[in-house]
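Example 715, ligand adenosine-5'-triphosphate.
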Amino acid sequence: MEFDILQQLNEEQRAAVACTEGYVRVIAGAGSGKTKALAHRYAYLVQELGISTANILCVTFTNKAANEMKTRIRSMIGDSDTGLVATFHGFCVRLLREDIHTMQYPEHFMILDSEDADTVLKNVYQENKIDSRAYTLTMAKDMISFRKHREDYLSWFLEMDLEKLREKYLNSPNPREQIFYGYLYEQRKVFGLDYDDLILSALYILKNFEEKRHKWQEKLEYIMVDEFQDVSAAQYELADLLSGYHKNLFIVGDPDQTIYSWRGADVHYILNFDKHHPDTQTIVMDRNYRSSPEILDVSNSLIAKNRLRVEKSLKPIRQAGRKALYNHARTVKEEAEWIAGKIKELREEGAGFSDIAILYRAHFVSRSLEEIFVKQQIPYVLYSGIEFYRRREVKDILSYLRMVAAGDDMSFLRVVNVPRRNIGNKRLDLLKEYAGAKGCSLYDALKENLQQDLIARSKASEFVDLIEKYRGIYKELKITDLLTGILNDSGYESMLRQSGEEERLDNLAELKQSVYNYEKETGEETLLEDYLQRIALFSNMDKKERKDSVKMMTVHTAKGLEFPYVFVCGLNEGIFPGKRVDTEEGLEEERRLAYVAYTRAGIGLFLSDAEGMNYDGSFRFPSRFIFNIGREYLNYVRELEPGLATNARHYISASERKLNLSAAGFSPGDQVRHKAFGLGKILEVKKEKGCYVIQFEKLETARNISFHAPLEGER
Ligand SMILES: Nc1ncnc2c1ncn2[C@@H]1O[C@H](COP(=O)(O)OP(=O)(O)OP(=O)(O)O)[C@@H](O)[C@H]1O
């Protein structure tokens, strides 16, 4: 039987689908149908070759992409288990659930999302009176992540017991160490793993336990990874290791769409894949099905300005349409009004609101648009901003559920006094001291101190009664019923009702609905612990789509999506590219981001900017990502005033000269001389931060030294 799915594909897609064995790399341009090829390949493996879905790992970049992939696959192969279509993190959770006992961790370990990490850190800051302005949470998280990625970190960590960690914490000589050990100590107390740990722990198990490695390697006969241009070193290692037995690794990506370098993505893994695996077969897809030729002209001419890339140009399949439009406005209000006007025109031409997306570099850009949309009754939905599972009320109620399932300190601190139970800082300090001395959780400390004078005068026992009641029965309850019970008994729901917080109540109703759906999906054996693990993996894209509304989101969120009409607004120097860009690599990543934005559009592309001031008082010129586009490809609503255009160009060339100055001149291993520190060796080049890490002979510890610093090369 001819597999008719193949017939819907073009030649390159068919090659990608049918080339099932060995190392295969697909370099696919935007909109060239790589996601489609991936889904069809999965179906081909199952239907044509008879491979079981249990033996295929398909890795996507977000949970939303995984869900869409599952839907596509199911529609081709019928209802079947697609459990191994997941993000790297999702897959690691799966692996860890089976094998984390090798690390002496419980099967139902806890996942700490970035907000949990913040809670832990804030607590450490408070305990040690660390000034969060001097050492920000972002710096702390970067530092922790950096240290966790050292080769021997996990074996070192696992050798330490709780007591040793606590000792290290209490004896830390400076805030940096206090933060690091305080964080590890809190994590260990609850057997918590943050996102970094999920990947690192999976790798640790695979590397150190041969039997486990063989088990997973043998199980995963075929591995496919989407968005490979954005994999990190650890993710790469994971994919490589897992495919080490069958050696069937299929990767897809577009080097021009790397937009996560700031989070550790490294485009070299896709570019050098064939060097690591010399027998790699490479397939190039450059026919674009999504966008009109005019939109591709704009996108191609923009990305051609990047120096650090492999040249490729998208070829249109669609019919010619309209030229992209650019509008320069005097104020952000005018810019928003222009967009609203255009949306109305598109509606009159028959477009739906949901055919339209508005993309921006930074969240704050949405405000002026929202105001106009509300005024003009244009329905819209924000896809990025506060994500559903991070909203206060949702987090609170999930923390209650976690109190029942685990009783960790983060959840405890979050809800013990919400609604108010008179448990403020004084009482909490007492509990912290007790818990510290005993090495127990805060909740246990509370239970053991209910009779203590100060505690007895609060409503602490109501809280303990509530948690104990549900701990006794939750295994027999449906999660929906548990949730309803807690909302009632804790007084949380009535607290919101009293303060008239309709929107928060709506969110809780939505949460209930989602739990209900989840239980329906998973059937009889739904465990609260499994549910909580799943939720901890959700990211911003998992929001429900509302009816016919304009979609507003950051460009990062729009990755992988497509819309008939796209507005990219706030195209100003200082916004897009952002103010903080100070290296050539950083600027090229911003340009790739603009490229991702422009290539989301199918029929219409609208670019706009507005004059104004940046927060540092500098004038907002139109972005270089407008000037980078060949003038012949863009219709200007009105020409820029000559003075403005000249000033903008001057500003841009001055800023580009500065970037060239800040390019790295040395590589790791080079010997250099610094005028104050003398002779040193470059250990690392941090391009994103515009600095070297240098070990100087006369200093004990390495230093970050800016590219700007006068350094001389030494032989
Ligand atoms: N062979 C084909 N024939 C017709 N349409 C196709 C074909 N392949 C893909 N398409 C359509 O082209 C559009 C882009 O496909 P897809 O989303 O798979 O691209 P992509 O490569 O993942 O894009 P990006 O990297 O920009 O996110 C979709 O609307 C898809 O249905």
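Summary: Residues 9-10, 13, 28, 30-36, 254, 289-290, 560, 562, 599 surround adenosine-5'-triphosphate (CB under 6 Å).
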